[in-house]
Amino acid sequence: MIGLSRRDFTTGMLTALGGTLLSGAASSENPVQNGGQKPPPKRNIPLGFDNFSVRAWGWNADQLLDYAIRLKVDSVLFSNLEVFDSFEDPYLRGLRDRAEARGIKIQVGTVSLCPSSEAFNPKFGSAEEHLSLLLRVAEKVGSPVARCYLGHGGDRVKGGGIRVHIDNMIKVIETGKDQALRSGVKIAIENHAGDLQAWELAELIEKAGKDFVGATMDSGNSVWTLEDPLAALEILGPYAATTGMRDSAVWQSPDGAQVQWTNMGRGQVDWNRYMDRFQELCPGVAFQLEIISGGPRGFDYYKPEFWQAFPEARARDLAGFVRMAANGKPPVEPEGTPSGKDEQETSRLKQSFDLEQSLSYCREVLGLGLS
Known about the structure:
Elements: H1 6-16, E1 47-50, H2 61-71, E2 75-78, H3 89-101, E3 105-112, H4 127-141, E4 145-149, H5 162-174, H6 177-183, E5 186-190, H7 198-208, E6 213-218, H8 219-223, H9 229-236, E7 240-244, E8 247-253, E9 256-262, H10 271-281, E10 287-289, E11 297-299, H11 315-327, H12 343-364
Parallel strand pairs: 1-2, 1-10, 2-3, 3-4, 4-5, 5-6, 6-7
Antiparallel strand pairs: 8-9, 9-11
Helix pairs in contact: 1-2, 5-7, 7-9, 9-10
């Protein structure tokens, strides 16, 4: 790669693995799943993506920004600090300036900030030091949010249970209050990988202080905590500072339900209804796609031991999820899903295909995006 800039390398890779990326189902000129009907009215909701959607590429911040420019999105969420080549001010300001010149808003995030969670990694120091770094990076690149999360579903039963971890998370978040308020960056905690139900995250935000703490509202993770994404929207929408969005399929199994994340429009979320409420509850909040594919996951809620993880579960939340399962069925693989010469190339091609198809659906069916 001697003599090639990161930008040239990114462009070359996208072209070489070709025809699949930035084409076909992903093109804004080639609408999907609207039957060729007239495009819907624009909702004027910023549309973007979380870099986890294309994690197999291993791109850094510059390469991800190149990709965001090519996709003509309004925003991009760098959801882990490892994408940055440096935390020095000139480098971060350079990213901000290049993004702003193309009309793209960079959002910044990281991983677990709960020191008692199994997911916590001391790579960036203590949880408090990690939070301080996150807020500084967010401020320098012009991000209005600092996305983070507590942990994952295992924390619901380990380390004393989810209440212990919530309390520990609040203690860490409170140490960043002055820095967050001074910089104008809102700490945006995600409902992540089965760690928190919507009402638990809302309670955490209220206790920590909603003047500087909000939510990264993840529609896919709602079904991992036995919630209908529409019901979770009603709870978390008023707190949302940013998002991580994907569709989900839920269907019945002998012991409960199976769940599988899907591309937008290929699951069973009623997205037009969702977006109507999103506009009302989340004005100005970016709709960031975090498309994650993979096989189904079982939730055996007919087994008594399952409920050890949800000692305070609410019947009305479960009822909505059970209703989804009763009306659902396994998803069908999108037509035209690409494959490569090996597992790595297949993962890269599929992740880009899934994201780009979902962006097209959001634009052509839901009317999302500012341009």
